[in-house]
Amino acid sequence: MSTMTAPRPAARTNVAPLPVSTLAAKYWMAITGLLLVAFVLVHMAGNLLVYRGQDALNGYAKFLKGMGPMLWIARGGLLLVFLVHIGLAFRLSRRNRQARPIGYQVERTLRASLPSKYMLLTGLVILAFVIFHLAHYTLGIVHQVPVKDPQTGGEVMRDMLSLHDQQGRHDVYGMVILAFRQPVISLSYILAQLLLALHLYHGASSMFQSLGLNHSRYNALIQKVGAAVAVIVGVGNVSMPLTIMLGLVGQGYQPL
Amino acid sequence: MKLESKVPGGPLASKWTRYRSEMKLVAPNNKRKYKILIVGTGLAGASAAATLAELGYNVHAFTFHDSPRRAHSIAAQGGINAAKNYQNDGDSIFRLFYDTIKGGDFRAREANVHRLAEVSVNIIDQCVAQGVPFNREYGGTLANRSFGGAQVSRTFYCRGQTGQQLLIGAYSALSRQIGLGKVKMHTRCEMVDLVVVNGRAVGIITRDLVTGRIEAHAGDAVVLGTGGYSNVFFLSTNAAGCNVSATFRAYKRGAAFANPCYTQIHPTCIPVSGDYQKKLTLMSESLRNDGRVWVPLKAGDKRPPEQIPEGERDYYLERKYPSYGNLAPRDISSRAAKQVCDEGRGVGESGRGVYLDFKDAIARVGEHVIREKYGNLFDMYAHITHENPYRSPMRIYPALHYTMGGLWVDYNLMSNVQNLFVIGEANFSDHGANRLGASALMQGLADGYFILPYTMGQELASVKKEEVGTDHDAFKEAASSVQQKLDKLLAIRGKKTITAFHKELGKVMWDHCGMARTAESLQAALRRIPELRADFWQNVSVPGQGNDLNPSLEYANRVADYLEFAELLCLDALQRNESCGGHFREEYQDNGEAARNDAEFCHAAAWEYAGPDQPPIRHTEPLVFEEVKPTVRSYK
Amino acid sequence: MAGATKLMNLTLHVWRQKGPSDPGRMVEYKATNVSPDMSLLEMLDVVNDELTEKGEEPIAFEFDCREGICGTCGLVINGRPHGPNKAATTCQVYMRDFTDGDHLYIEPWRAAGFPVLKDCVVDRAAFDRIIQAGGFVSVNTGNAVDGNAIPIPKHQANLAMDAAACIGCGACVAACKNASAMLFVAAKVSHLALLPQGEVERTERVRQMVYQMDAEGFGACTNQAECEAACPKEISIDFIAKMNREFMRSCTLSQKSRGDSGGTG
User: Of A207, B43, B102, C69, which residue is most buried, by most CB within 10 angstroms?
Assistant: First the structure.
């Protein structure tokens, strides 16, 4: 008989239990985190087509739209992943706070990286950003952009989602350029992307540890890969609003 | 008082095997009806508790620590002996037996020691099976090293943390039984008295150290695995909590205390460095495998060690004991260190220290090998002294370390009180007048895993089971006397701290009853101790209350016992007119070597408590040597 | 050692709490004429003696072996469990590690799983219960085969020893911002999982221990490695990764058989 079947004493503290064990909760954080990182990278790669011009980006957008139900499945899956990641993050951080009900008079850390201390905060900002981002581009709730009227030289407001290119495709390129010409929008995107990079700096390497995919021989490499992912996402995503805002990209663009 | 050793007949080598197959047993379905109270959960107590619970007994275990894993067995560094002969260097059960008997200066019971050597091999197997990570060779087999007093390599080890790993093994076995509900564990619960009814141990009184509650526990047998009494000397290598209280209270309830004067002074400790110091730190004897002990040739040579040329160094152990060299037994090495320091050749600020030098070993095998073998010990030394032992030699000096004396037990490990068993360092049985290195872990685990679980059955089955409940007057009397004593301590509210008394007692003991004793010094101590005790009961200051966690009260209660016990120790030392092992009387020596007196003192002295203010009564158990012949113990 | 050592004066801020239900507070004390060669605990002993002489109740704190192996002592000193030294326990902190005039903030381990009993003494029984849940090999005394019957590669035995070196002090919990016990549990899980003797119960052991750890109210791991930095035995967080693997393996493999019986347990 295995002797490990004795009844366990009940919890002696007021710490709220999780729906799964703390280890499994972290597995799910890591797995969903990994999927979200993958999404972020693919999303960024698609967006970087902005540098290849209007045709490339709009073509890519058309390809995505053309996927039909597949797109909706992917969107649904992504939403689910996102909700699990956020939901568990809230549950875990609540539990972690309860696990230390009284703090120290002198708080000091030795090894914790700066980003690792602010995962909940950066995560919350990213959440807020994602909501704004969806409202901005996908749902078109914030969809009025100022456009220079070629005739009068004055500014008129246009609906972003109504823009089309010469081939009649949805003009995603135009949306990006016009939106990021507005410094307020660009700066808020830049800020959000920097925080995302911080979040990934810890998350992208930490997920390996949580999943037990760790080995003393590869730990340094994993750290570097995590940092590299953070830097790539940060640089890639910041570059777009920055270059457009500064007029380095899409300067001559004029919507139809 | 009757001291019946109960050593079974027949040839020495087969006594235990034969006895084991002939002894009485408790039927499996009856075992759970026997409630066994085990006090102390170090190596001996934890292994006994686990094993007895596995057998089906109803076990209650008690420790004053917050967890069984804290017991001082954990601090044993060097290793554990076993006659495995894995090294093919001529080891055997007989050789381990002989080394141990000789190491103990022919003052131990032959049959017990032989049994210890026999079961030593099972201990290693058991510990490996529990997952104790012993050091291994590249081929995956178990590694060995040498220890003092032996010319074979029979010591098994886990880096410098052998005691820790063995204790964790026993602790995990105990934890398994606790988890299964077979052992009820009482932590932070200190035994404060033994209850004896009609010459039979029927229970204990404990104090819950968190709530201060005095509680009575009735049981069919009481097992004491409560360790030794080195802390009566104040400064020792023992943990702060180690104390004599459990065994001493048992003595006051009728158990005989045997050979209290057999105290071991370990040669390799970090020297005392200030009067605020509360404990001394041991540097494992295993270091003497690679370290060389020396002092300057000339007295008063205050040059730093590096500047003293080879020709002006005295490697005195190698010089005096060429065949054992730096691995001479502990008592002999300690006395040799004292001698050279008395000659004014001691090193360090106080002049009470000798060098333990690794320069040659580092040159021979490289620093990395030394680091792998002893890294944690070197680190510990560096932490304490702020010196780098890889660069300059360690300074060491002898300090109190282990006590061979303890409650008298028979071959069944039972004291003269029926159903009171005593195991591990707490009993007197196996090490005679001096313990060899790596033997304490062996004895603790032998008693707990492989001896007591058998012999207890024999004793329990030999007498009629009687239920004595905690409502018996004896429990009430014991509980109220404990309560009165605690109340009295708290009521004194004097001006002197508990530490001050303990420190003063320690100084009396070290100066008068330490490495070298004389009738005169012992008589001086015997005059001083009662004065100190009277002063304590007048002027000690014990802060706080009795009904909560009060470390001062716990400490005062223990010091009160030391103040009585110290007298017994000195009395025993005074009566033993010979030098043997750790007991060195300056009057009885032969050119600086201990001179035994087999004609008059080839016996164990067991002291019977005769009541307050009455001198205790000395009884003797003659030691009969059938197999070995006591000889002059020579390591030259 | 230095000849004439300069004595130090320090200000202590110590957590005082009468009992589990008392809210507790920081109290200031002066430690004067402290020798740099004193250990921190010896300095506290002196402060306690002074308090006793003044008729005040001394500060309760735990210690036993005073050589860094028993795991009894544990104070958070200026925000660091076991104080400023690397790879050392509280009893291995010396006053020379501080400078004259320093303020020392001395606090107990802080965790829901380690309730304070008095002042700086906490109850770490949760660790024992975690071990009781599965931190062992189920082998009764007398069942063992010869110690050399199963060879174990030296490096593997060494690795197991690295994990087994844990002294159960709880500094990992004290250092973690989530009061997570992962390093403690991981050390025991790894120690036994690395040895052939622990192999048989490997799957069930990690499950039971993790469930118990959660039941005791310790937090989750956020991979900050503060535990590793505080651990007096320098136990690596690689063992946490190993436990994560072991637990995942058990999630996929564990089958509870209801049919088994027998054994004395």
Answer: B43
Closest by CA position to B496, among listed B565, B556, B557: B556
Query: Is the pTM for the entire model greater than 0.80?
Result: yes
Per the structure, the count of domains in chain A is 1
Tally A–C CB contacts below 8 A.
188
Q: Which residues of A94-103 are buried (b: 16+ CB within 10 A; e: fewer)?
A: ebbbbbbeee
CATH number for the domain that contains residue A59: 1.20.1300.10
Is C225 close to A112, i.e. CB distance below 8 A? yes
Burial class (CB in 10 A: 0-12, 13-18, 19+), C132: buried
What strands, in cross-sheet order, belong to the sheet with B183-186? B183-186, B58-62, B35-39, B221-224, B420-422
DSSP-derived letter for residue A147 is: E
Structure confidence at residue C3 as a pLDDT band (50, 70, 90): very low
pLDDT of B135-183, one tens digit each?
999 999 999 998 877 889 999 999 889 999 999 999 999 999 999 999 9
Structure-token match 């290849």, residue found: A52
Q: Which residues of A touch C223 (CB under 8 A)?
A: 116, 202, 206, 209-210
CB contacts, 8 Å: C78 with chain A: 106, 108
Give the domains, in start order, of chain C with CATH numbers.
8-117 (3.10.20.30), 124-139+149-253 (1.10.1060.10)
Other C-beta atoms closer than 10 Å to the C-beta of C141 total: 24
Inter-residue contact A129 to A121 (CB < 8 Å): no
CATH tag, B265-401: 3.90.700.10
Residue A142: pLDDT band by 50, 70, 90 thresholds? low
Q: Which of B180, B183, B184, B185 is the best mutation test for A, with the most CBs of A within 10 A?
A: B180
Q: Is the pLDDT of residue A252 over 60?
A: yes
Cβ-contact B517, B584 below 8 angstroms: yes
Task: Report the b/e string of C243-259 with b at 16+ CB within 10 A.
Answer: bbbbbbebbeeeeeeee
Q: What is the pLDDT confidence band of residue B635, given thresholds at 50, 70 and 90?
A: confident
Other CB atoms closer than 10 Å to residue A147's CB: what's the count? 17
Evaluate if residue A13 carries a pLDDT over 70: no
The answer to whether C30 and C9 are in contact (CB under 8 A) is yes
Quick check: is A198 in a domain? Answer: yes
The whole domain housing A85 covers: 22-97+119-245
Q: What is the DSSP letter of A9?
A: P
Subunit partners of chain A (3 or more CB pairs within 8 A): B, C
Tell me how long chain A is. 256
Closest CA to C160 of A75, B468, B130: B130
d(CA C257, CA C101): 64
Interface touch B240/C67, C-beta < 8 Å: no
**pLDDT above 70 for C1:** no
CB-CB contact of C125 with C34 (8 Å):
no
Q: Residue holding tokens 């990286």?
A: A113
**C222 with A116: CB under 8 angstroms?**
yes
- Looking at the DSSP assignment, which residues form a beta bridge with residue C121? C118
Helix orientation angle between B110-130 and B93-103, rounded to the nearest 10 degrees = 120
Q: How long is chain C?
A: 265
ipTM of the complex: 0.95
